[in-house]
Amino acid sequence: MHGFVRRVLLSAALSGAVAAGAACGPADDAGQGGPPTAAELAAALPEGDDLPGFTARPQDMPLLEKEDVVTADDPACRPVSDMMSVRPEHPRRAMVWATLTADGAPADAPPGSLVLTSHTAGDARAWLDDLRKALSECEGFTATSRRGWTYRFTVKPLPPPDAGDESVAYVLTNTSDIGGKGNVMTVVRTGSVLASYLLSRDTEWSGAVPASVAGPQHERLRDAGAGR
Predict the structure, then answer these.
(1) Contacts within 8 Å (CB) and 24+ apart, 213-216
(2) What average pLDDT does this structure show over 199-203?
(3) What are the pLDDT digits (tens) for 92-150?
């Protein structure tokens, strides 16, 4: 089952976007307890019907591997391509994730995902700032992975939900996916944690994750002490 879920989500990544992989490094939030640990993030993962409109299933295997280093041909687009790379400019210190299945979705519909990553507080804010700037400048880019693939993607900003400390949202579409509608990525910051939601538009999901979903997850992170 795990192998199947991972293959489906990696397929979704190549037709849109994915947030994954933990590139770990030393903490630099001295005096603030450092970035949240994987255990703290796991305590904040939703399960079952914790998020309205979805069934969440926490996963215990890596979503991406060390070969999944992704680069963009346009430097202005790097904050977007970094979302699917294990070596982003702003390192991830810990990562946990869950699959999301929308209520009423067909049995063969691709699952979505929620990835929680911890960072230094400065890196979390900087990545959101960089993403916001990229969404105003980057309309498309060619991404290349050390795994051996190269794809062209288009980028379209979306109105983000009114949730968390700040958030961004966009559609990322693989131009080689004929007839594909791309994926919606919503990134919500809670302190030094980024919650990144990936949903396929092929399942008729057209907008950002609503505040009714992102808001409760923001509170879950706060309650678990992972939003510092």
Answers:
(1) 213/51, 213/52, 213/53, 213/54, 213/161, 214/161, 214/163, 214/164, 214/167, 214/186, 214/188, 215/161, 215/163, 215/164, 216/50, 216/51, 216/52
(2) 82
(3) 999 999 999 999 888 878 889 999 999 998 999 999 999 999 999 999 999 999 989 99
